[in-house]
Design brief:
By secondary structure, this protein is α+β, with helices and mostly antiparallel strands. It is built from six helices and 22 strands. The model has no long low-confidence stretch (mean pLDDT about 90).
């Protein structure tokens, strides 16, 4: 390699390095420390200049007087506005009107192969960052906590402890997603910024409603005798393996061992299909389960609650 080639390569890498450092600095102004869980700080993002902060729901154990550490060194306290376990997002509010909100990217600008940075402020020393690429854009995806994401962003950027609730940013420092260790179990999944914006808007209006049943299930094969009675192509259902005490299912008379077949005519072939039926429109309303109990097929009416 010639001196000119080496100098050119060095210059390109140096410029890239400077741009990435600049992206961290740009985004870091709007990244805060959130101390809402004893002994484990998490990260939040200044969502609006009037004091709204978006963070990870699973990191919120207290709802008032939550210590917030700003990038400029100020210490404020926040209160919980609302939370949505399904997407692992929570909205906080501090009493300030001079905050610098994070700049957000447009979803269409995010492409597989783009360089991204996961940013966190888990301690008083300042921001931390890890580098990766957008390795996949997928969806729709039903989260383990009952949320429905039309899309997710997968990255190989490392999510260090305390990075949950922090931003995944592009090379310009614009937010492309919100990191959540709980939803991804460390696998590098982020909630797309446009989904986060939609949830944040709902949280300002009191929260995201999701219907709630209060059961745990597992897929089971249906006996031949039951399939013959159904006279259909259904060959499996959802057996209730647990029922929450005083929950909607128990109050409506569902029993452990019941095998759910349909809800208002929609086949329930796996847990995802059941979760998909628990929409906001069902909150407080009744539905009818077709199920197998003691080898017989029967209908049971259930009034759904609301997931807290």
């Amino acid at each position: 390699m010639s001196d000119n080639e080496a100098g050119t390569t060095s210059g390109i890498l140096g410029n890239l390095s400077d741009e990435l450092a600049g992206a961290v600095e740009t985004a870091g102004i709007s990244v805060v420390r959130v101390e809402a869980r004893r002994g484990n700080a998490s990260t939040g993002i200044i969502w609006s200049s009037d004091g709204h902060i978006l963070t990870a729901e699973h990191a919120i154990e207290r709802e008032e007087d939550i210590p917030i550490g700003l990038g400029d060194g100020r210490a404020l306290t926040a209160k919980l506005v609302a939370r949505d376990p399904g997407t692992d997002l929570a909205l906080l509010k501090v009493d300030a009107t001079d905050l610098i909100a994070a700049e957000r990217a447009v979803g269409a600008d995010v492409r597989i192969g783009h360089l991204v940075l996961a940013i966190g402020r888990p301690g008083p020393a300042g921001v931390m960052a890890s580098l990766g690429i957008v390795s996949a854009l997928g969806g729709p995806w039903r989260t383990a906590r009952g949320g429905q994401l039309e899309q997710f962003v997968r990255t190989d950027a490392t999510l260090y402890p305390g990075f949950s609730g922090g931003p995944l940013v592009d090379a310009s420092g614009r937010v492309v997603g919100i990191n959540s260790w709980t939803l991804s179990q460390g696998a590098g999944l982020a909630i797309p910024v446009e989904t986060a914006a939609s949830v944040a808007q709902a949280l300002t209006q009191g929260g995201v409603k999701r219907a709630y049943l209060g059961v745990s299930t597992q897929v089971v094969a249906l006996p031949a005798t039951v399939r013959a009675k159904l006279n259909s192509e259904i060959d499996r259902g959802l057996m209730l393996t647990g029922i929450e005490s005083d929950g909607p299912a128990e109050k409506s008379g569902l029993l452990i061992g019941d095998v759910l077949l349909h809800l208002d005519g929609a086949a329930l072939s796996d847990t995802d299909t059941l979760l998909g039926e628990l929409t906001s429109e069902r909150v407080g309303k009744a539905g009818t389960f077709s199920l197998v109990r003691g080898g017989e097929i029967k209908d049971v009416a259930v009034t759904f609650g609301q997931r807290s």
